[in-house]
Write a structure and sequence with these properties.
heterodimer; A: 538 residues; six-stranded mixed β-sheet; B: 2 domains; 66% helix; globular; ABC_transporter-like_ATP-bd (chain A); ATP-binding (chain A); transport (chain A)
Chain lengths: 538, 432
């Protein structure tokens, strides 16, 4: 039997770049196939060839053995190939079923009237067949990201897709939603659909895919069955050399208190309390990890510490001084580095080149500014040094930030912030979207800062990252620390329980909280209200 | 293309304006020239149609072969528009490319440059606010207030100084400074309202235009009106304190020194925006407010600063209008502030671009006057042709601007053909 998808010797050249070089890929019907590779390995380009967005320079696309040539995604859709992009293409104010049929509505009156009943019926029937738990009449704006993704899948299925391409499908999902997505994969393949998904996460490929194809520098390094391969082997295929999966931390005696947070409460944009009466401290030469499902107050905590959001109650002391009323500018000047969660909203000015972005935050400080005038020569030297040290590609200080891939944008931000010579680094998802080779490097740099006596507040949704790098690990749930544990001894199950809001009864908590009384969970400080009246942090 | 919500809600807008967002300067220049040619082609048709509808004794132009006569000659209209605005440097219908005896120091060119000069200031005023992400529709009001402050301060000071060139220089400088301060304060009001009360600056600046015009009118009518004047106007400032035409004919109301000052302002503003820390703050707030805040920029203060600077530039425009064009403050003020909006859009909100944009406006103004002198084409039709050119040239830039404002561009919309580099990681992929 012919494979459902067979890419035969695909080469795709762009001016100056070979994105895919003679790539073969065969995907069996009814299987889940992961396309794994680092940023810039050519994964998305290859899938865009299959989806008709690009014409291959050389090579043939075969579906069920038939050679096909697509001029546009419409041709691909007609041939049964659907693609689900990472950013969804949904109309927020419309309902689920309206979104699904949009552009292909069943009509009556010779095409003049949309047959709403038939359309809705078709969508209901489709989502029942695949066991999707989506309310067809819900408005897309009101449903979760995971449900929106299922609506996207329904759209593709409604258009008759047999082969579903998904670009980084888990990037926007919570761990639970990822599990649900894997369930959807099973449901779809049971019914004969074929799934290809793009990923740069090893664990994801191993747990969700039947087969894994690794791309490196546009070349197919090999296709393996996920049952026959280990993480280490996959990592080596991706990077081309052996990768240490565990960062090497050495025990170290923490120094002075750098950050003391007492009774901190912070509201989110809607005015709902996102951080509730939180207290902890962070010392020099120490990494405090904050784990938790995204959206449990981590963002608001970080914003309050870095001066981007006012606290409603509580106090933040930084190197012994109260930060109440201190602006973001003051905190930068006092040596706070900040790797923000949203690199394209905050971390970089997308239309600026890297030279201009390299001074973001330091635009009033020497050597980049002298008596109010900017020294673009110094700025360029700085950008070039960050680019070189942190392996930002392309290595071009004139490249606009928006032209870089997500991983390279992230490397540039991390480099800029680490090279600020900070006393405190607040790092939110520092390696999100970064390939594993560079992740290793960024982790090493972070630990280097720690050994130089800097304090690091590390927020990450990657459990292995926070666990591997932290001296203490706080787990956040609904604005509170449900526990502060020793990352060396805690188990994933225990962290999972804490993330779900349950507390641990045994003494693994105590072991970690040894050197401070203020690490408090909710019960620690019955008089938290008094701390709350001390001042509002600006 | 970072926020998935914004991506979805703006997808229609993206398709409409996306192609205009990511153009380089060279591409934009080509687009502008093509737009002018296109607008002339459309204008041709309009001139012909109106020439057919209008009644006249002798046809200005007869279509070959058909023998149909038209009252207006479209070729002549456009030749007079552009050639006339410069004072006829090019020979038309005569041997040689240039007219012998043409000198740039002629009346028509003077009128053109006078308009250009005034629009440089109002264009810069609007541009600097746009760069900070603020739509200052209030340059007109700032110009009115600034001009009045200039006239009144000079009238108050002049009797205290001995008449003469030295006093003239002092009075011009003091008067212009007074205009800048008054315009700046008038601009700071909507800036502060925006920063501290979250009042939309488009609304407040429009409203303040009316306040400015009417308060100034009443003030002059009741308090500062010149004795025996039939119009609502102040006394003339002393002639030695005016910017008098120099080299150019007196009736052109064009002082070369004012144009040079305007060009100096362009250079200074360009330097400010591109080469100073405060300029970096300002334009970063304009393109990406969240990133500016992350970078330690005080958003509120920057809003007030930008609006103050914008208002001050409008005020200087008012000062130049009083000192160069009228010699006094007069209640009938041309729409320089509103034209400044179009000039700024045309210039892509780039200070350097304000010079050619203001010059194009000047040419259209000077040329329109010439058409009135030389042909039977009614002024209303000339206004239509001017409007067409501006509309065609400004529209791509305008699309670009709203595209940027809506946070488009830089993604897959305008340039789908990029390799995996832009599409590898999670986050900002070419996805449209």
């Amino acid at each position: 039997m012919n494979p459902a998808v067979h890419l035969d010797g695909i080469t795709k050249r762009f001016p100056g770049v070979v994105a895919n070089d003679d790539v073969d890929l065969a995907v069996e019907r009814g299987s889940v196939h992961a396309l794994l590779g680092e940023n810039g390995a050519g994964k998305t380009t290859l899938m865009n060839v299959l989806y008709g967005l690009y014409r291959p320079t050389e090579g043939t696309v075969r579906l069920d053995g038939e050679p096909r040539s697509f001029d546009s995604p419409r041709d691909a859709i007609n041939a049964g190939v659907g693609m689900i992009h990472q950013h969804f293409m949904l109309v927020d104010p419309m309902t689920v079923w309206e979104n699904v049929v949009l552009g292909n509505e069943p009509t009556t009156w010779g095409g003049l009237r949309v047959d709403r009943e038939a359309a809705r019926e078709a969508v209901v029937e489709l989502s029942e067949r695949y066991g999707f738990d989506v309310d067809p009449d819900a408005t897309v704006a009101d449903i979760s990201v995971g449900e929106q993704q299922r609506v996207e899948i329904l759209k593709a299925l409604y258009r008759g897709a047999d082969v579903l391409i998904m670009d980084e499908p888990t990037a926007v999902l919570t761990p639970q939603e990822v599990e649900e997505l894997y369930g959807v994969f099973e449901e779809l393949t049971d019914q004969g659909k074929t799934i290809i998904f793009i990923s740069h996460k090893l664990g994801e490929a191993l747990s969700a895919a039947d087969d894994i194809t690794v791309l490196r520098d546009g070349v197919n390094v090999g296709t393996v069955a996920s049952a026959d391969v280990t993480r280490e082997e996959l990592a080596e295929m991706m990077v081309g050399r052996e990768v240490l999966m565990e960062p090497a931390t050495t025990p170290q005696e923490p120094g002075d208190r750098v950050l003391e947070v007492t009774g901190l409460s912070v509201d989110d944009d809607r005015g709902v309390e996102a951080v509730s009466d939180l207290s902890f401290e962070l010392r020099a030469g120490e990494v405090l990890g904050v784990a938790g499902v995204d959206g449990n107050g981590q963002s608001q905590l970080v914003d309050a510490v870095t001066g981007l959001r006012e606290a409603t109650a509580g106090e933040i002391r930084y190197r012994g001084e109260s930060m109440v009323g201190e602006s973001r500018r003051d905190r930068i000047d006092r040596g706070m580095a900040f790797i923000p969660e949203d690199r394209q909203e905050r971390g970089l000015v997308m239309s600026y080149d890297l030279t201009e972005n390299g001074i973001l935050g330091s635009q009033h400080d020497a050597p980049f500014a002298r008596s109010g005038r900017l020294d673009w020569g110094a700025a360029r030297d700085h950008a070039e040094s960050v680019i070189e040290q942190y392996d930002v590609r392309p290595p071009d200080a004139d490249a606009e930030a928006e032209s870089l891939s997500g991983g390279n944008q992230q490397k540039f931000i991390v480099g800029r912030e680490f090279e600020r010579d900070p006393e405190l680094v607040v790092a939110t998802h520092p390696t999100r979207g970064v390939d594993i080779g560079s992740t290793e490097f960024l982790h090493d740099r972070l630990l280097e800062l720690r050994s130089q006596g800097k304090a690091v507040l590390l927020v990450s949704s990657k459990l292995d990252e926070v666990q591997g790098l932290s001296d203490r690990l706080a787990v956040m749930h609904e604005g509170e620390f449900t526990g502060v544990v020793d990352p060396a001894t805690v188990t994933e199950e225990e962290i999972g329980l804490l993330m779900a809001g349950e507390s641990l009864d045994d003494d693994s908590v105590e072991g970690a909280a040894l050197h401070d009384a203020a690490t408090g969970g909710p019960g620690d400080d019955p008089d938290g209200a008094t701390a709350g009246e001390e001042g509002v942090d600006a | 293309m970072s926020d998935p919500d914004a991506d979805r809600t703006t997808s229609v807008l993206a398709r409409l304006v996306g192609p205009f967002v990511d153009r380089t300067v060279a591409e934009r220049l080509v687009i502008s020239v093509a737009a002018i040619l296109l607008s002339i082609a459309v204008g041709f048709g309009i001139v012909l149609v109106s020439g057919r509808i209008a009644e006249c004794s002798t046809a200005a132009w007869t279509m070959p072969l058909t023998g149909i006569g038209f009252c207006y000659d479209p070729v002549e209209v456009y030749v007079v528009l552009f050639n006339g605005a410069l004072g006829y440097p090019f020979a038309v219908g005569e041997p040689g490319l240039f007219n012998a005896g043409w000198t740039p120091l002629n009346l028509s060119f003077g009128l053109t440059l006078s308009e250009t000069t005034l629009l440089i200031f109002t264009g810069l005023s609007v541009a600097v606010a746009f760069r900070a992400g603020l739509f200052n529709i209030g340059t007109q009001g700032q110009l009115v207030v600034g001009g009045l402050a200039t006239a009144l301060s000079i009238l108050a000071l002049a009797p205290l100084l001995p008449a003469g060139p030295v006093a003239g220089v002092v009075l011009v400088v003091v008067g212009t400074a007074a205009g800048a301060v008054a315009g700046g304060l008038w601009g700071a009001i909507p800036g502060a309202l925006k920063a501290y009360a979250d009042a939309n600056e488009v609304i407040t600046t429009i409203m303040l235009n009316f306040v400015a015009a009417n308060v100034a009118y009443v003030l002059v009518l009741e308090v500062f009106r010149a004795e025996g004047s039939s119009v609502v106007a102040t006394e003339y400032v002393p002639e030695y304190a005016q910017l008098r035409p120099w080299l150019f004919p007196t009736s052109s109301d064009f002082a070369l020194v004012a144009l040079l000052i305007g060009v100096g302002f362009i250079g200074a503003l360009y330097y400010f925006v591109e080469h100073t820390s405060l300029g970096y703050d300002l334009r970063t707030s304009g393109v990406q407010a969240a990133a500016a805040e992350y970078g330690g920029v005080n958003a509120k203060l920057t809003t007030v600063r930008a609006m103050t600077l914008s208002g001050a530039l409008g005020g200087v425009g008012g000062a130049v209008w009083v000192l160069m064009s009228e010699g006094r403050w007069l209640a009938s003020i041309p729409d320089l502030g509103f034209d400044g909006i179009t000039v700024s859009i045309l210039a892509g909100n780039n200070p350097i671009g304000v010079l050619p944009a203001a010059f194009l406006f000047g040419v259209l103004k000077g040329g329109a006057l010439e058409i009135g002198f030389r042909t039977d084409v009614p002024t209303q039709l000339v206004a239509v042709l001017r409007g067409l050119i501006i509309l065609f040239v400004a529209m791509p830039e305008f699309f670009r601007m709203i595209g940027r404002y809506a946070g488009l561009g830089g993604g897959g919309v305008a340039r789908p053909a990029e390799p995996d580099e832009t599409a590898g990681g999670e986050g900002g992929e070419a996805d449209a």
